[in-house]
Design a protein that fits this description.
single chain; 551 residues; alpha/beta; 5-stranded mixed beta sheet; two-stranded antiparallel sheet; 9 strands
Length: 551
């Protein structure tokens, strides 16, 4: 088998592992408080597409009138549409046309397919520039990061932008020696721009990298002015084609473009505060300290992955320093790959560390960082194997021993990461590693037990089985999110129709979610903890919620 076929076969296998694993667990993942934003928007956008183009085929172009566009596209204009279109199209195909899924899974399939493609691209890229072991391990270590695993199922934008950001990274690498890919990277970058506002930082990172690499060619010539180095074609196509794709994909900005773009950017610059409980302090504004993204990564990622990531980073830095001193001989393309992995790893998490950037929701705001962390860990795995291989070669020439050792090195980090991820499913956002003492240590240290106001499916099942007819339930501290998400369960016949989510004054049952970012939580806990406790969801002895009988 040729090397190209090996890469394709390996990457396809990884993609299938992603898809099968995600699909097999999706029914256990609860609804987030974003479901009402993105699921509704996804369905609205695809309704406009199907209705407008079906009319256009009959010569009726009224669907393109801005007032008609606004009826569908004004909803959730805080974010560009690509991820929502992906969700909407998957819902259209699998729920509406094929009728093989309910509405929730139909929407989520779009995200799961996108992340499965990420698995393929990640494996293919790392295999090409580093090797087989690094490709397999980095791909699987990404899948089995508990937070990433959770986000890979749900109807939000974070796993989608992590995917499109990495697609842009991989396409840029290919574009350095290809005119075709120099065009394609502009299109792919446009999809990233159309997903979420993390994407522009990719272009900033690449442009900065190009400037530093070519700094010696920036010259001032008297009488001629500043002489610039030759610009890569992809650095031209990314902003031009990318912005064109961004514009074409978002009908809401077709009219009054500058005003509406200004509205979009102003929303994020002046984003409303969201509470974040971090080492016993509730942050809103000012935001949490600069180190919170690094600390949250350190304590919510499987420890072996972190250790391997640090080791892989050290290997890359050591190799690059030797290369700069002409003491190491590595392929130029691999050198560029190493440099760009470090640059993008730093940018994706470093941007969120800046003082005036919001910090909340665990690690969701910098999810594009995690494919790069996985690559660093994968390089750590391959480097360990190469060190061990030298020892084996000194002792024996037997290929079976080499094969066994490579398999062992591959499984040592993946098995515990997979175990932790599956063990915590569907409560992956409550995962904390041994560096902080697990969930109990995190609770003691003053960290959030959970976030996203998740309406857990286990709670729904308990409701259906145990609550009397016409039961009235309230959630505290943040009932309004459950009022918005409950109808989606009811629409899919998952939650009993007669169960109502009401305010506290009318409730017979209280679900107290243990979320200490809400300042009223301590008082609520003190008031209700001695009420009859009917049900509890906990993980490793740490309660996430309790159901109390009020009347």
């Amino acid at each position: 088998m040729s090397e190209k076929k090996k890469v394709l076969l390996t990457s396809t296998t990884i993609s299938l592992i992603y898809f099968i694993t995600l699909v097999s667990t999706v029914s256990e993942i609860g609804l987030t408080d974003d479901v009402d934003f993105y699921m509704r928007a996804a369905i609205k956008y695809t309704e406009w597409i199907t209705e407008t183009f079906s009319k256009a085929l009959k010569g009726d172009f009224t669907g393109f009138v801005q007032s008609e566009i606004d009826k569908y596209w004004s909803y959730n204009r805080e974010h560009p549409p690509f991820a929502k279109l992906v969700m909407g199209v998957s819902h259209l195909i699998f729920t509406k046309w094929l009728n093989i899924t309910n509405n929730i899974i139909g929407i989520r399939l779009g995200i799961m397919i996108l992340v499965s493609i990420l698995g393929f691209v990640l494996c293919y890229t790392v295999y090409k520039y580093v090797g087989f072991l690094a490709a397999i391990s980095s791909s699987l270590l990404l899948l089995f990061m508990p937070s990433f695993f959770f986000h890979s199922h749900v109807e939000t934008l974070d796993a989608a932008v992590a995917s499109t950001y990495f697609f842009s990274f991989s396409a840029y690498l290919a574009s350095r020696r290809s005119i075709k890919w120099s065009i394609l990277v502009g299109i792919i970058f446009g999809l990233a721009l159309s997903t979420k506002h993390n994407a522009p930082f990719f272009y900033a990172a690449i442009l900065s990298y190009w400037g530093i690499k070519n700094i010696d060619e920036f010259k001032y010539i008297k009488g001629h002015g500043l002489k610039l180095p030759k610009l890569e074609l992809s650095l031209i196509t990314m902003p031009i084609i990318g912005l064109l794709i961004f514009y074409l994909m978002w009908p809401w900005i077709w009219d009054d473009t500058l005003k509406r773009l200004n509205e979009y950017m102003a929303f994020h610059i002046k984003h409303y505060g969201i509470y974040f409980y971090y080492f016993g302090t509730i942050y809103e504004k000012p935001f949490a300290p600069w180190h919170s993204p690094f600390v949250m990564t350190f304590i919510t990622t499987p420890p072996v992955t972190i250790i391997l990531g640090v080791f892989g980073t050290a290997i890359i830095i050591s190799t690059l320093l030797k290369t700069y001193k002409n003491k190491a001989d590595i392929d130029t393309e691999q050198q560029i790959f190493y440099e760009l992995v470090l640059v993008n790893a730093l940018v994706t998490i470093g941007i969120v560390a800046l003082p005036n950037v919001p910090k909340y929701g665990g690690v969701k705001l910098f999810l594009p960082f995690f494919p790069f962390l996985a690559i660093l860990a994968g390089i750590g795995v391959q480097s360990m194997f190469e060190l061990l291989k030298k020892k084996i070669t000194q002792i024996t020439q037997k290929n079976t021993i080499e094969l066994t050792s490579s398999l062992a090195i591959l499984l040592i980090p993946i098995i515990p990461a997979a175990y932790s991820t599956i063990k915590f499913t569907p409560y992956n956002l409550s995962y904390y590693n041994i560096f902080i003492g697990g969930p109990k240590g995190a609770l003691k240290a003053g960290m959030e037990r959970q976030y996203y106001d998740i309406f857990y499916i286990d709670l729904v099942r308990w409701f259906n089985k145990n609550l009397p007819p016409n039961a009235k339930v309230t959630f505290l501290p943040n009932n309004k999110e459950y009022v918005r998400s409950a109808p989606y369960y009811k629409n899919d016949k998952i939650l009993r129709e007669d169960i109502r989510i009401v305010d506290l004054n009318n409730a017979e049952y209280l679900v107290l979610t243990h979320e200490e970012r809400w300042r009223e939580y301590p008082e609520l806990y003190k008031k209700y903890k001695d009420y009859p406790n009917l049900y509890e969801i906990s993980i490793e002895g740490v309660p996430l919620l309790n159901v109390y009988k009020l009347k």
